[in-house]
Amino acid sequence: MTGEPGAAAGRRSGPPTRHVVVMGVSGAGKTTVARGISELTGLAFAEADEFHSEVNVARMRSGVPLDDAARWPWLHDLAGWMAARSAEGVSTVLACSALKRSYRDVLRQGPPAVDFVHLDGPAQVIRDRVSRRAGHYMPASLLESQLATLERGEPDESVLVLDASLTPDELASAAVDRLDLCGTAVWDR
């Protein structure tokens, strides 16, 4: 019923929330940089890999790249997570590959607005990082498929490109500064 408290369910007062997706191929440093952004700003952090189904994880562990059919439910879950945080008045930072424009378009369907930070760098720098990484289910053999899948941001997308060869601290600071993220974590409701 209109006019009663709570009639605008899902709507809240106060400044809008901010939502950032740190994107790039496996080994670019997404998780480390997204955590750094979270630490600098207080934005709620999530690792997209933790949203994958057991089937997807098993597939990647065995060296089989995910196809779009396997990715769509995962991407919708991520968009839903950001939308739910937005409804709570909480800003977020998500580490997610978001390799194709169509994937980023799904993520944009969650909260009112999403900024992307693309950690981009020479393939050899990324290969070196992946080869030194221990304990991750994504094998280095899948890097080439990710590099082939990557669609760089278009001019009409909000994609900040940063050089992945910088240190994680430099990348997190640059993202916070260039996106003007200071003080955007949680607003008074």
Q: Can you give a write-up of this model?
A:
The chain is α/β, with parallel strands linked by helices and about 190 residues long. It has one domain (about 20-180): P-loop containing nucleotide triphosphate hydrolases (Rossmann fold, 3-Layer(aba) Sandwich), CATH 3.40.50.300. The chain has helices at about 30-40, 55-60, 70-85, 100-110, 125-130, 145-150, 170-180, and strands spanning about 20-25, 45, 90-95, 115-120, 160-165. α1 packs across α7 and α3 packs parallel to α4. It is globular, with a radius of gyration of 17 Å.
Characteristic key phrases:
disordered N terminus, 5-stranded parallel sheet, Rossmann fold, alpha/beta, 13% strand, 7 helices, 189 residues
| Count of helical regions | 7
- The N- and C-terminal alpha carbons lie at a distance of 22 Å
User: Which class of secondary structure composition applies to the elements?
Assistant: alpha/beta
The description of the largest β-sheet is: 5 strands, parallel
- Rg over C-alpha atoms, rounded to the nearest angstrom: 17 Å
